[in-house]
Amino acid sequence: MVFPDIIIAIDGWSSTGKSSFAKLIASEFSFLYLDSGALYRAVTLFAMEKGFIAGDEIDEKSLKEELDKGLDLHFEYVDEGSRTFIADRCVEEEIRTLGVSNHVSPIAAIPFVRAFVDEKLHGFGRKGKVVMDGRDIGTAVFPDAQVKIFLTASPQIRAQRRFDELKMKGQDPKMEDVVKNLEERDYIDSHRETNPLRRAADAFVLDNSHMTIKEEVEWVRGLIQGKFGILE
Ligand code: CDP
After folding, report:
1. Whose CA is nearest to atom 19 of ligand 1?
2. For 114-153, what is each residue's pLDDT tens digit?
3. Which regions of the chain does DSSP assign to beta strands (E)?
4. Cα–Cα distance, 147 to 204 (Å, whole number)
5. So what's the architecture of 7-225 in CATH?
6. What pTM was computed for the model?
């Protein structure tokens, strides 16, 4: 099946498996995968390392000065996988820790941070045949995306998925901390003023609580075939 040059926007709650889904779509359909959350996570790691975050306080002025100078965030393909880089340093592992997860949503709620990340995403997305996941891709970053999907799953299943993922990476999370982090991020992500997490009116909702990732990809294949009248 030959796919048209389209943007597929995948939004949804934390730990609904957006990035695994988007990555598999990218490899099955030969699309470029862009993980917008990774950029918010990288800005957060950068702010933590610079000492701009102390408890609940964020030194927004210093962070803005650094972003205005032009922080080099980008993706590189290493071992066939997309990895997040700050300049020449791969930060893929560090940005996925619970420490970064605990600060990312307040950082992502800051309007100048969102503007900074949006500009990068627009640059990366210009070429078409892109699948991008996040919270506001179908509503704000690419409102004209031809295919929009909003992923959801039950809170228990989401917490278990995140717990298993952290364990697999050799971390030792407590289930109660994982649940707390998901609840806090859900709340901040859906209540912030600038581009909160919302389902776009024209997004298809997929509850993947009881689906395998292969079934999800078949579902989206059917969706695209139907929408673009592709017969094979
Ligand atoms: O993997 P998970 O879905 O838990 O999160 P992520 O996609 O890595 O995103 C981390 C955080 O970045 C989210 O909780 C949001 O606060 C923020 N984010 C956002 O505000 N807008 C996006 N387009 C993507 C992520």
Report:
1. 135
2. 999 999 999 888 878 999 999 999 999 999 999 999 999 9
3. 7-12, 32-35, 53-54, 57-58, 73-78, 81-86, 89-90, 130-134, 147-152, 204-207
4. 8
5. 3-Layer(aba) Sandwich (3.40)
6. 0.91
How many angstroms separate the CA atoms of 190 and 182, rounded?
12
Question: CA nearest 103: which of 136, 67, 54?
Answer: 54
Q: Is the CB of 23 under 6 A from ligand 1?
A: no
Among residues 105, 93, 107, 134, the alpha carbon closest in space to that of 52 is found at: 107
Please tell me if the CB atom of residue 96 comes closer than 6 angstroms to any atom of ligand 1. no
Distance 13 CA to ligand 1 centre (A): 8
Tokens at residue 28, please? 């099955």
Task: Give residue 30 CA to ligand 1 midpoint distance, Å.
Answer: 24
Domain ranges of the chain: 7-225
Per-residue pLDDT tens for 155-212? 999 999 999 999 999 999 999 999 999 999 999 999 999 999 999 999 999 999 999 9
From the CB of 41, is ligand 1 less than 6 Å away?
yes
CA angle in degrees (0–180, nearest 5) for 160-197-17: 30
